[in-house]
Amino acid sequence: MGDVEEVVEKEAFPEVDAEYEDEYTDFKSQLRALVLSIARQLYCSCSVMMFPVLSQIYQHVKRETPPIEVDLDPDDKYFSIDEEHFAFIVFDRGLLTPSITGFIIGGILLRFIGRKYTIILTNFLHVVLLSYAFLSGVEEFYPYNLSLVNVFVRNIGYMSFFIYLAEITSPTFRAFFMGFYVLNENIARIKVDTARNEGKVNKMFRNVTVITSLSFLLAIFTPETPFWLTLKGNPEKAEEIFTWIRAGYSDVDEFNQMLSTIEDYSGDKRILKRILSRTFIVGFIFSILVILCDINPCKLMEVVLHDNYLDYDTQTQDDIDNLALIIDEPSKYFTRNKMNGVVFFLAFNFILPRKLFYVMSYSLGILIVVVIRYNLSSIETLMQFSSYCLMPPYLGTTALQHILAVEMFPTTLREIGLVARSIFNVFYLYADDFSTSPDGYFPLRWINRPLYYAQFFISLIGIPVLLIFMPETKTTNIYELDQVISDLPGEDFTSVDGENAVGESEEN
C-alpha cells in the first residue's frame, strides 16, 4: 500500500520534480564552470606570479656600491651619514635611468609583440640574470652593473604582469589574483630576509632560477589575452581563448563589450582623439592622486619614533641597540602580519565597491596613525599595534592600487597610461628617498617629518575627492570604463551624431 501511495505522489507532481531536477543540474554545471574557470585563470596567471618574488630579491639583496668620498660630521645628528650609506644613495640615483627605460620599453613591447611574448622574453631574461648570479657565486652583494640590468628587466616584467593579469582574469576574481600577488610578494620578502641573514643568498638564487625557468616554460603554453588579439584584428581567435578561459562561467556581454569598444575606436578620428584623451587624463589624474595619498606606515613610524622616543642626549646604548633590532628585523613586527592585510583586502573587496573600500582603508589608516601618535608610550607597543592594526588597511590599499593601475587606463591607452603612471611613481619615490638619508641606525633628515605630515594632509584632502569623483570600476569591466568616464560632467562627445557634437564644440 505504501508503495502505491509513493507512486501516486510522484505522478501527481511531475512538473515540480522536473523543475527541481533542472535547477539542480544547472547548479552543478554552473559550479563546475566556476571551478574550471578559476583553475584556468590560475594556470594562465602562474607564468607571471614569479615577478613579485624576483622584485623582492632584486630590492633586498645587498647591492655593490661604487667608492664615494664624503666629509663626515659626527656632531651633526641630522645631516651626518657614513660613507657607505652615502655611496648607496648615490648608487640608488644611478638606477633612475634603467628604471624609467624599463617602463618605456615594456610599454612598447606590450603593444607591438603582445602580452604573452613580452612575458616570455622577461622570464627568459630573468633566468639568464639569476643563472649568472648563481654561477658567479654571489653570496651577499650584486655586482653594480648587474643591479642596473636587474632594475631594467624587472620593470618590463611589472608592466607585463599588471596588464596580462587584468586582461586574462574575470572582473569578479581579479581582486583574488591581485591579493594572491601581494601575498606572494610578502612571503618572498620573508624568504629573502631569512636567506640573507643566514648567509644562504647563493642557494636562494639557485632555487629561484629553477622556479623561474619553469615559469618561462609555462609562459610558452599560456594563451595571449583576448583583448590584444582583438586589437590586432583577430577576433575569432580572441573569442576562442575567451570561451576557453571562462569555461562557460561568464556573461557574453563582457566579450561583446570589448568588441564594441575597439570598433568604436576605429571610427571618426576627431571623436576618437577626444575619447582617448579624456580617458587618459581621468585615469592619470586619479592614479597620481592615489599615489600621493599612499600612507606608508613604516615611514610614519619613523616620524613617530623620532618625535616620541628618540632623544639623542639621553638615550642609552641599550636604547639604540633595541631600536636597531626592531628596525633591522621588519619580518618580526611587520612582514609576518602583512598576510592580515591580504585577508582584509579580499574580505572587504567582495563586499564594498572599490572606491568605498579604498576610502575606508585610508581613513582607518589615518585614524590609527593619530592613535599611535598620541596614545602609545613604548616602542614595543608601538610596533605591535602598528603591525596588527595599520598593516591590514595599508596592504589592502596596496593590492587595490595594482588593480586600479590597470582599470583606470582602459582600451587602447592602457600601456601608455601605465608607463606614465609608473614614471611618475618612480620620481615620487626617488624624491622621497632624497628626503631621507641614513643616520646611524635611524634613517631621518629634518625634512622627513614635514614631508610625511604634508602627505598626511594630502590624504585628508584626497579622500573626499576620490569618494566623490573617482569612477567606480568594480561594477564594470575594464572595457566599459570608457563609457563611465564619458558620462562624467563635461562635453558630450560620445553622442550618436558625434560629428555634429564635435563641430558644435569647435564652433563654440
TrEMBL record:
<keyword id="KW-0812">Transmembrane</keyword>
<feature type="transmembrane region" description="Helical">
    <location>
        <begin position="204"/>
        <end position="222"/>
    </location>
</feature>
<dbReference type="GO" id="GO:0022857">
    <property type="term" value="F:transmembrane transporter activity"/>
</dbReference>
<dbReference type="Pfam" id="PF00083">
    <property type="entry name" value="Sugar_tr"/>
</dbReference>
<dbReference type="GO" id="GO:0016020">
    <property type="term" value="C:membrane"/>
</dbReference>
<dbReference type="InterPro" id="IPR036259">
    <property type="entry name" value="MFS_trans_sf"/>
</dbReference>
<dbReference type="InterPro" id="IPR050549">
    <property type="entry name" value="MFS_Trehalose_Transporter"/>
</dbReference>
<feature type="transmembrane region" description="Helical">
    <location>
        <begin position="451"/>
        <end position="470"/>
    </location>
</feature>
<feature type="transmembrane region" description="Helical">
    <location>
        <begin position="158"/>
        <end position="183"/>
    </location>
</feature>
<feature type="transmembrane region" description="Helical">
    <location>
        <begin position="86"/>
        <end position="110"/>
    </location>
</feature>
<protein>
    <submittedName>
        <fullName>Uncharacterized protein</fullName>
    </submittedName>
</protein>
<feature type="transmembrane region" description="Helical">
    <location>
        <begin position="275"/>
        <end position="293"/>
    </location>
</feature>
<keyword id="KW-0472">Membrane</keyword>
<dbReference type="InterPro" id="IPR005828">
    <property type="entry name" value="MFS_sugar_transport-like"/>
</dbReference>
<feature type="transmembrane region" description="Helical">
    <location>
        <begin position="117"/>
        <end position="138"/>
    </location>
</feature>
<keyword id="KW-1133">Transmembrane helix</keyword>
<feature type="transmembrane region" description="Helical">
    <location>
        <begin position="356"/>
        <end position="376"/>
    </location>
</feature>
